[in-house]
Amino acid sequence: MGRAPIKIILDPHLRLPLTLRVFKDGRMIIVNTQVEKQEGNLHYMLVDEMTVLPLLMTRLYESGIQSILVEGGRFCCNRL
Question: Are the C-beta atoms of 38 and 44 separated by less than 8 Å?
Fold first, then answer.
């Protein structure tokens, strides 16, 4: 069996409730514009809103992540 994937969630304003099922297991990176910190399996990655995608790709590469799979969710960031 392969390694468990690292979940990467784009939540600029940290509005997603931590009670959502996606937060239950596994290592996770929460990309946001508010805070940089580690809490258990959650790594909050701080990025500037204006450069979020180029900076995110650079930061993920520096973290040893070289491939990603993008999935849509029920929420859209501009509606949170």
Answer: yes
Q: From the CB of residue 47, how many other CB atoms can be counted at a distance below 10 Å?
A: 19
The boundaries of the domain holding residue 15 are: 7-69
pLDDT at site 66: 83
Contact 31, 52 (CB under 8 A): yes
- Residue 60's H or E segment, with its range, is helix 52-62
Number of compact structural domains in the chain: 1
Length of the chain: 80
In the prediction, which pLDDT does 38 show? Answer: 95
pLDDT recorded at residue 30: 93
In this prediction, residue 76 carries a pLDDT of: 53
Q: Do 48 and 33 meet the contact criterion of CB atoms below 8 Å apart?
A: yes
